[in-house]
Amino acid sequence: MSEAQTDRFAQFKLVLLGESAVGKSSIVHRFVKNTFDNMRESTIGAAFLTQSVTLPESNTTVKFEIWDTAGQERYKSLAPMYYRNAHAALCVYDITSRSSFNKAQDWIKELKKQAPEGIVICLVGNKLDLEEEREVTQDEVAEYIEQLNQEENRLISSECSAKSGDGVLDVFNTIARALPIEDAIGGSRARQQRMVKRGAGVDLTRNRPQQQAGSSCC
Asked: Which residues, by range, are in coiled-coil regions (predicted)?
């Protein structure tokens, strides 16, 4: 297999949205560092992390630039700063909290109105380890997804447990597979070619001061 087929790379901006205490930061830290902290403090403003997944079927490494936003209402006005130019968004809710599910739906409505066209939205139910306390059923989530996807097939869903780690990697793998990888790789190659062409046409001696014959310094 040629190097061109194996050395494929795409980079995407991803933002997490959702009510406070649904576990957005815990999901990110489980994905990035494979750790979980029961006493994790609330995010202030937003936190930035990066992590990559490998898609073996396409021999591609997908790097996520992750913006984990604060869930408190006082930070809501800052959210557009983070989902602007985002390629994907995780709208997270707590499966044991119906109010958080309603809030996640509000975020999806906002993204469909304000976010970039074509953004991949994933509705993520966290705290799967608390199945016995579930308030939001999988059936109603599936019905909600089906209803929205009649308009535009860009909304996906998943469930996970940041505490146990179950399903967390699957969330990001699912998102990676839904992203326009070929477009990103093609655009990156086109930019590199333009840079090479511009560099090839630069005269590196153009602005260099010329020393006259017979002249001396000082």
From this structure: 127-154
